[in-house]
Amino acid sequence: MRRISIVSIFSVKRIAALAMLTSLCCFNSAQAQTAAPRSAGVASQTNATSSMGEIPAAVIAQLELNPDQKLKLDAAHDARRIMWSANRRSRQAEYAGLTELLNKSTFDPREAVALRKKTRAAIDARFDTVQEKWLAFWDVLNEGQRKVLVTYMKEQHIKQGTASAARAKP
């Protein structure tokens, strides 16, 4: 029984860490929504800290990635960029659809709710795809690399919490 609980606790911690990584990389900046997808490999070629939700070059350097790991990271970054662009197009289409509904002679709010649910389902499916790419990257990291990444995630989590608390003050 003890072995099961240890595995379960480890699995829960791993899932929580991966969810945090995904959310930090996917939602680090609202500016990412306007970014056009770049070709594979471009994500890691920048030396400046990106405002696109990417892992900064300094952290990537600390990870000392092998070529396979680098390919997985680039695939995750590219998938996130593609997701942001597609999500933006989905929200624009939803807005246009709602405009049409509101311009009808009779408005049925159920149609607006259905439109919103359709948009959310598409966005959620794309987010799941991006999470799979980040999990594939996580799975090829060794323990030392994971520790470096989790340290970065903790720092970002604290920064986001501080910024959120500052915005919440009247």
Summarize this structure briefly.
It is built from five helices and no strands. The protein is mostly helical and about 170 residues long.
The structure class reads mainly alpha
What distance separates the N and C termini?
A: 50 Å
Report the helical percentage: over 70%
The overall number of domains is 1
How many strands appear in the DSSP assignment? 0
Largest sheet: none
| Helical run tally | 5
Q: What would the average pLDDT be, to the nearest integer?
A: 79
Low-confidence stretches: 4-10, 16-20, 26-51
CA gyration radius, whole angstroms = 19 Å
State the order of secondary-structure elements, H for helix, E for strand.
HHHHH
What is the overall silhouette?
Answer: elongated
The percent range for strand residues is under 5%
Task: Please characterize this protein's 3D structure.
- It is a single chain.
- By secondary structure, this protein is mostly helical.
- The protein has one domain (2-168).
- It contains 5 helices and no strands.
- It is elongated.
Keywords, separated by commas or semicolons:
about 170 residues, mainly alpha, elongated
